[in-house]
Amino acid sequence: MEKRRKSTAPSSSSSSKKRDGEDNAHSHDTLHQPTSPLLCVIVFAVLIRYLVSLHPYSGAADPPKYGDYEAQRHWMEITLNLPAKDWYRNSTSNDLTYWGLDYPPLTAYQSYVHARFLEFFDPESVALVTSRGHESPLGKFLMRLTVLSSDLVIFFPAALWFVFAYYGGRSRIGREELLWHLSLVLLNPGLILIDHGHFQYNCISLGLTVAAVAAIFVEKDLVGSFLFCLALNHKQMSAYYAPAFFSYLLGKCFKHQNPILKVTKLGLVVLGTFLLIWWPYVYPLKGAMEVLRRLAPFERGIYEDYVANFWCTTSILIKWKRLYSMQFLKLLSFSMTLLSVLPSMVQQIRSPSRQGFLFAMLNSSLSFYLFSFQVHEKTILLPLLPGSLLALDEPLMFQWFMNYALFSMFPLLRRDQLLIPYVALYVLFVLLYYCPFRKQDTSGRGSVNGWKTSVMALFLLCSLLLHLIYLTLKPPEKYPFLFEAMIMLLCFSQFVFLAIYSNVKQWTLPSRFTWIEKKKVL
Question: What parts of the sequence cross the membrane (predicted)?
Fold first, then answer.
């Protein structure tokens, strides 16, 4: 009997391995189908970006300070013409009150590379001081081209890598579903409108973050840590994801044979990457402190404009800036952010998983958006990214999130005269979401019934009415920002609901997604 029991065990194990091999082979073959549909998706995504770039940008023909377009151009001017030690220092050639550089050194290096490109074709566009407000047709074309090239070099490959890494070990995922998900990531209306319309380079930091996730999913944790450190050093708002990365990697380390060695390796990669990027400012220490002061502009207050987060929304009833000191608000903001992100971190430390990691990124970035200090409308792009990475797992959640993420930025995009691309991209998103080639969802994740449908329809009707009111009516003179406040209240309520749903979802993930079962060999 004992011999028989021993002889049958390998058979069961081998059959299990065979099934796993067949599933992996199926996913591998799915990802390597003929490339023409994939190429069409990529070309179409590039075309959409180009068409959006033909519209106005932030601060177009609006002196004296213009807008984000001028800020990015000015950073190219500064990094090209001044030594690195003077990039963050106030001087006669670098007036920090005129769009002073307020992002980490990697943004400065990126600006320098792009400045070299502009200098070759249009030197006047990056000439020191005299180029302020430069808006020649050639200069605008070159600036738009730098964003598009950054997208193609960083964000597009990262999105492809993520799809390969996330679905490479999952069975029964069809080619149409993969292309549908990739299309949603590449044709994210919010990212396209802000980067190629309003004008920024979010595609770099977000692309590096997606690449870091993909690297971690293929068990390249050190590479993933390096890439995420690059994202942090490009835009400090990438720290919105830091709790998720920290908790997931720490949870994996605890399951490792030698957790101390694993943690040490990760720590050395992080320290080495930061040291490499900050090297021009490490000595003397005064240089590093000058940069850090530029990265944390607390003097602007706890909120600006009408952002759909906790501080701005509750300021209707509680005048935070008037009643409380800056020091108290910083402490309160930090405490609320930490408390709101803590449950998600605990879950990943206890039971790290791929899907749980993506939910942790969503929960962490939403917590920062809702409760952290100095949040802008455009910051909603950070939680929207992991939402898009979960689009195939949670299609309805992503659709709902996209609706209100776009709506929360509507006043900003309207001021930038981007109404036409806003409507066009929203319609494109709806068409893509309900694409007939998308495999129908039979799990109930992408549909709702009964009273839930009525509630969602009511909220959508409210957003549609507010769109029309904002475009056609003038607010009362006594309350000039009444409509912005109404949009803010509606979007804030939906973001809070999404945060609650996402946290609950993370804690109730099926056990089959746990990393422990995926990597028992450790």
Answer: 141-166, 178-194, 201-218, 266-283, 328-346, 358-376, 418-434, 454-473, 485-504
